[in-house]
Structure formats: C-alpha cells, structure tokens
C-alpha cells in the first residue's frame, strides 16, 4: 500500500482533541517503563558524575552530516523553512517566488528529497578514508522530518516520503561494518509543530509535544539503532524540566541497551550548554582560549556559511585543507574532539569538493594520526607567538608546527631534553639533528628535502622521546 501523503505542519492546521489523544496514546506505547533501581538518579549532580566512556576522548576526529528536506531547496542554509516562513525574510520569499509556483509549500519539497544516489557503503568508505572515528547523522532537524520511520512522525519521514528508505538504519549498518562509531543528531523542538506551538502558547506549562513527539522519538532511536552518541540540539527555548531531559538520561545511563558506551552532549535545556552533559559543545564553532577542565567538542562546517548543502556556495565559502587541519590540531591540543560537518545533496551525493577535503584530512592523519588519536594534552598546549601546538601520549611529546621556519631550524622553548632524548619527524624514518637551546628548550635541524619528498604539505609533526 502507498503511504498516506505527508503533510507536516506547513499549512494552517488545527489541533483537535481526538488527534491529540491518538498521538499521546501512540507515544505512550513507545516509551519504555523506567525501572527504579540503583544507579544514576534523574538530577544533574548524579548524571554529571557519570564517567565519560573512554572511546570518545580517544576518537578525537568525527564527521557531522546534515541531511534532510532542507537539502532540496539547498539555498541559504538548513534553516530555509524558518527563514522563509518564520522570519519571512525577503530574500527567501523572493527565492520562492522566482523558482517555485504560487501555493508551493515546504511539504512539497518532501517527495523531492529522493536520496536516489545514496549508497551508504560508499559514504562509509569515504568517512573511513578521511580518518573519522565517529560519524553523527541528522536523524531529525528542526523541520521535523525524520530520516527513519518514526512511528510518531505523522508520515513526515524518509520511509513514507521521498527516499522510502530507512536512512538512519542503512548508514549505521555500513559504518559499524567498518568499526566506526555511530552518533545521531536529534532536535528536541520543531519550528512549526502544532503541539510545540501549543505548549509554547501555554508558557511551556504543558508538555503535549514532549510526550507525543520528543521523548517517544528519543526512546525509539535508542532502542532501534543503539547509537554510540546522541547529539542533542534545539533546546534553547525551554528549560530541561520541560524536555524531561534528566528522566531520559537516567534511563539512558541505567537501563538502555547502550548504557555503558553511549555519550551525550550538553544541549538538554536552557542553561545546560557548557554546564551539564557528558561532554560540552557550548556553542557552534566553540574555541576555548585555554585548556578546559571538562571534555569538549568543536563542531564546525566545511561550508563556512551553512551546515546543509547549498547550491549557491562558492569556493571562497569552503574551508581550505590547511584551515581544517590547523583547527583539528588546535582542538586536540586543548583536549577537544573535532567534529567536521558536510552536507550531502538531496540525491545523496557528497560533492567532489567535500570529498577532496575529507581525503586530504585522511591523508594527513595517515602520517600524523599518532599525534592525534588517543593523545592527551601536554603540560604546555602551545608555544606563545608561534604556530607550534603540543600533544602527548605515554612518554612521548608531539610538537605540531603549522608554519615551516624560513631558515629550516625549529626552536622549541617548552621541551626539556635529557641525555636519552631522541627527536624525529613523523613520516620520515631518520632521527633529526638537534641540540639544547642555551636559553631554554631545543633547536632542531629540519629535513632538507624537496616539497615532493615531504610527508605532508602542511602541519608537520615532531616526535620527542625522553624529554622531561
């Protein structure tokens, strides 16, 4: 049988009591019974005491994938619907007048989100070649369209509309076949869902949307796909008590099938960012000035102006390979993970410029990954007024310098050499010549090689063994 036509919430729609009761009844079937047992309690002091599973800190580099119905207009940003109908921005309204017939609704984009050329095995191969240790896919963005057959999506999902496929499930299988950890992005709120708007009108004193939509989806994602990571978003209009965040996280940590390995971020309600959660995002493209005292992640996008794919992006909007690698190095040196975003097309293609950048990062990591994966911050994170950043692992220290000194001599002020110190460059087998700096540190003679013989084009790694 053909699935019913999807009509999310783009046209005027009155919430009737019958539909509300049906949604709540269906949602109640999807929420598991929480067993009260010893373990983490539904409050932040208890939840924040949970140790972060070690795999996340060791991973260091992940990929973010923003993909949904917003990939169809593919213009402006993934917030297309909000800019068009929520803010009523003139440029987005003009775009619709110029390219689509009168009366065209956002729901009409749904069937055009075909994922026709989506091949999860090819995506997984590319992500593996890029050196990513985890991948986070949008299961649902603020538009409400789910990339899996959510039972509470009211047919606004990838199984009933557009691809007619379970995109979340297919990519998860391909990634796990390659031992890549799988994370799911999930937006707590939806711009135009009538139940959310009703709760908002009620000053968030009611939880019709949370009980009928948000929580059933979160439980369904965990039970159906067993994600290694839940990347929560869309929390900022309401306190965590509206979202019942602590209740869900207590179940996740105590009773869920992923209770021992799952990792979550910090976007679970107003004032939670940078305060509560497994690790901190704080804000998009967050860059601390020093070493934070809590595990964190920098999320950023290859397209500097958008997270979703844009047909109108220019080359100047795309981060250069050297920029990406420099951000990765700086993030890891300060104890963070680096989550780099790409946006596939509506057809499920990753455009060549994104592929090229990912493969360049993978090539760099194939040489320098020893200084990145499973590393820890050193006692000094960077040399002031230079381009040198440090990481460490065991008894080894890694100095990654982003600019090649003009005289071919690298002066490191922070390492203190000993009689057993050896120094080499990753990608070159021979030890380097060096001498103690009379003032402080070491002076290293860099390899005198033509550019074609260098292991990488930028961001070179010096490995120091036997320093204090």
UniProtKB/TrEMBL annotation:
Site features described as May be important for catalysis, chain residue numbers: 299
Annotated catalysed reactions: a neolactoside IV(2)-alpha-Fuc-nLc4Cer(d18:0) + H2O = a neolactoside nLc4Cer(d18:0) + L-fucose; an alpha-L-fucoside + H2O = L-fucose + an alcohol; a neolactoside IV(2)-alpha-Fuc-nLc4Cer(d18:1(4E)) + H2O = a neolactoside nLc4Cer(d18:1(4E)) + L-fucose
InterPro entries in UniProt: FUC_metazoa-typ (IPR016286), Fucosidase_C (IPR031919), GH (IPR017853), Glyco_hydro_29 (IPR000933), Glyco_hydro_29_CS (IPR018526), Glyco_hydro_29_N (IPR057739), Glyco_hydro_b (IPR013780)
Signal peptide: 1-30
Keywords: Glycoprotein, Glycosidase, Hydrolase, Lipid metabolism, Lysosome, Signal
PROSITE patterns in alphabetical order: ALPHA_L_FUCOSIDASE (PS00385)
GO molecular function, one term: alpha-L-fucosidase activity
Occurrences of domain Glycoside hydrolase family 29 N-terminal (ranges): 35-370
Localization annotation: Lysosome
One Pfam family hit: Alpha_L_fucos
GO CC annotation, single: azurophil granule lumen
Domain Alpha-L-fucosidase C-terminal: 385-465
EC number: 3.2.1.51
UniProt KW Glycoprotein keyword: yes
Biological process (GO), any one: fucose metabolic process
Subunit structure, interactors included: Homotetramer.
Family: Belongs to the glycosyl hydrolase 29 family.
Function statement: Alpha-L-fucosidase is responsible for hydrolyzing the alpha-1,6-linked fucose joined to the reducing-end N-acetylglucosamine of the carbohydrate moieties of glycoproteins.
Descriptive protein name: Alpha-L-fucosidase
Native species: Microcebus murinus
Gene this chain is encoded by: FUCA1
């Amino acid at each position: 049988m053909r699935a019913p036509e999807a009509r999310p919430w783009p046209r005027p729609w009155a919430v009737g009591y019958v539909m509300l009761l049906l949604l709540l009844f269906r949602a109640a079937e999807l929420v598991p019974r929480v067993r009260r047992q010893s373990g983490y309690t539904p409050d932040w002091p208890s939840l924040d005491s949970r140790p972060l599973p070690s795999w996340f800190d060791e991973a260091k580099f992940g990929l973010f994938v923003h993909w949904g119905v917003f990939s169809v207009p593919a213009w402006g940003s993934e917030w297309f619907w909000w800019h068009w109908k929520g803010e009523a921005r003139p440029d987005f309204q003009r775009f619709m007048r110029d390219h689509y017939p009168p009366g065209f609704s956002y729901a009409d984009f749904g069937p055009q989100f075909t994922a026709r050329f989506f091949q999860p095995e090819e995506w997984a191969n590319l992500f593996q070649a890029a050196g990513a240790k985890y991948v986070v896919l949008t299961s649902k963005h603020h538009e409400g369209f789910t990339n899996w057959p959510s039972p509470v999506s009211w047919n606004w999902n990838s199984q009933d509309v557009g691809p007619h496929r379970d995109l979340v499930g297919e990519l998860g299988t391909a990634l796990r076949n390659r031992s890549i950890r799988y994370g799911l992005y999930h937006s707590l709120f939806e711009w135009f869902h009538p139940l959310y708007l009703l709760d908002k009108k009620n000053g968030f004193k009611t939880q019709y949307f949370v009980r009928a939509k948000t929580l059933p989806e979160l439980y369904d994602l965990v039970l159906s796909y067993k994600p290694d990571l839940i990347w929560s978003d869309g929390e900022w209009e309401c306190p965590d008590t509206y979202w019942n965040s602590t209740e869900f996280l207590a179940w996740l940590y105590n009773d869920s099938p992923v209770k021992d390995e799952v990792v979550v971020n910090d976007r679970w309600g107003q004032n939670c960012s940078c305060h509560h959660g497994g690790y901190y995002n704080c804000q998009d493209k967050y860059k601390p000035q020093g070493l934070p005292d809590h595990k964190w992640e920098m999320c950023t996008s290859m397209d500097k102006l958008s997270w979703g794919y844009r047909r109108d992006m220019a080359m100047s909007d795309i981060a250069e390979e050297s920029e990406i690698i420099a951000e990765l190095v700086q993030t890891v040196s300060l104890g963070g993970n680096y989550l780099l975003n790409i946006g596939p097309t509506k057809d499920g293609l990753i455009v060549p410029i994104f592929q090229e950048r990912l493969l360049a990062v993978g090539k760099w990591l194939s040489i320098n990954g020893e200084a990145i994966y499973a590393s820890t911050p050193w006692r000094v994170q960077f040399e002031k007024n230079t381009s040198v950043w440090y990481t460490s692992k065991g008894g080894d220290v890694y100095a990654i310098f982003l600019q090649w000194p003009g005289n071919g001599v690298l002066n490191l002020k922070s390492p203190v050499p000993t009689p057993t110190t050896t120094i080499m460059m990753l990608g070159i087998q021979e030890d380097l010549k060096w001498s103690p700096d009379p003032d402080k540190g070491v002076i290293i003679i860099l390899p005198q090689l033509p550019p074609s013989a260098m292991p990488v084009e930028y961001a070179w790694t010096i490995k120091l063994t036997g320093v204090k």
